[in-house]
Write a structure and sequence with these properties.
Number of helices: 7
InterPro entries: MoCF_Sase_C, MOCOS_middle, Pyrv_Knase-like_insert_dom_sf
Helix content: 10-25%
Structural class: alpha+beta
Protein name: MOSC domain-containing protein
Pfam families: MOSC (PF03473), MOSC_N (PF03476)
Largest sheet: 7 strands, mixed, barrel
Number of strands: 22
GO molecular function, one term: catalytic activity
Distance between the termini: 51 Å
CATH topology of the largest domain: M1 Pyruvate Kinase, Domain 3
Radius of gyration: 23 Å
Strand order of the largest sheet: 1-17-16-20-19-18-22
Length: 344
């Protein structure tokens, strides 16, 4: 009995030491931690990438691309980078979106040889040499979603074109994101966010509203459209970067981590709150007088619990994500997810 007791005590001590060693290794090695997590809770194949969207100017018309590189601050395809430009009020130094000027959704862009071309319906194009913008380095600090961030002013030609095309009486300027300039716009997880299920993390962003990535399932949009007899809404009403096909409607509410293809990996930070920009027709810039589809979303897509009390009438659709591992993703790539332990 004495020997057996000593053996059991030694075995227990050995197990404890082994567990402690595993814990120490996991706490110090992010790669080992990811491996252990994948082993204990493997990701599940739920669909494929259906569309990829890059919006060079915040609120402008998106480019649909077949593949893109996932960088820390957003999608990149060739010289196109997501939300690397933002329109500002030249006097107040406040960032503007389609919520302020609906015609922004009609701006089309192209970037070649580091030259940005802007055009739109029945408008002559204008081209901005971004090398010259960088050399001039006219740094401007503005307020974007209540946080201060700097960028490079793209000059008088860009400002004049925007003012004319957008039919604005305000002095407008175009700001170009430049890594390394001052920014308060890091995305820091808040426990009160909608459907939150991730630990503390911080993500860098250019000029998107909140996070560098937003994903939306095709099934979620299809379900919303099924509630209307004639009017059908586009992905461009909701401005995602990544459209996922093959999963159930609103499955994205339950995602905790996402892997696309072999390399790119994301952490789901929060559900995407929907504002009146969704009511602007992306092809005409006309705002829906009936408040749709936001009105219908409010009826059945309210966040639960404390988040609902805080956001009151803002519904959610889609999921906002931060990048965990960079990589190239393509239309048709498999999408794997690790679901949350608890739904909300």
């Amino acid at each position: 009995m004495h020997l057996r007791g000593n053996f059991e005590l030694a075995a227990a001590a050995g197990i404890s030491i082994g567990a402690l060693a595993v814990y120490e290794l996991a706490s110090k090695s992010s790669s080992f931690r990811r491996w252990l997590n994948d082993y204990m809770d493997p990701m599940i194949l739920i669909g494929t990438v259906g569309e990829l969207h890059i919006h060079p100017i915040k609120s402008s018309r998106s480019h649909m691309v077949s593949e893109a590189f996932c960088s820390e601050v957003g999608l990149r395809c060739g010289e196109l980078r997501d939300r690397y430009f933002v329109i500002i009020n030249g006097d107040t130094k406040i960032a503007l979106t389609a919520l302020n000027i609906p015609r922004v959704v009609l701006i089309e862009t192209a970037i070649k040889d580091n030259k940005l071309t802007m055009t739109g319906q029945q408008a002559d194009p204008t081209t901005i040499d971004l090398n010259a913008v960088a050399q001039k380095a006219n740094v401007v600090r503005v307020s974007c979603k209540g946080k201060q961030i700097e960028g490079l002013d793209c000059g008088d030609t860009a400002g004049a074109w925007l003012q004319q095309f957008l039919e604005s009486t305000e002095p407008l300027r175009l700001l170009y994101f430049w890594p390394g300039l001052f920014s308060e716009r890091q995305v820091i997880v808040d426990k009160n966010w909608e459907f939150i299920a991730v630990p503390y993390r911080k993500d860098e962003v250019a000029y998107p509203n909140r996070t560098p990535y937003m994903a939306l399932s095709q099934a979620s949009l299809d379900d919303l459209n099924s509630k209307f007899d004639s009017q059908k809404y586009e992905m461009r009403n909701f401005r995602p970067n990544i459209v996922v096909v093959g999963c159930p409607a609103y499955d994205e509410d339950l995602w905790n981590e996402v892997r696309i293809g072999d390399h790119a990996k994301f952490v789901c930070v929060r559900a995407c709150i929907r504002c009146p920009i969704t009511t602007i027709n992306p092809n005409t810039a006309e705002k829906a007088v009936d408040g749709e589809p936001l009105k219908t979303l409010k009826e059945y897509r309210q966040p639960p619990g404390e988040a609902q009390a805080q956001k009151k009438e803002w519904p959610v659709l889609g999921v906002q994500m931060g990048l965990d591992e960079a990589g190239v993703i393509k239309v048709g790539d498999p999408v794997y997810v690790r679901y949350k332990k608890f739904p909300h």
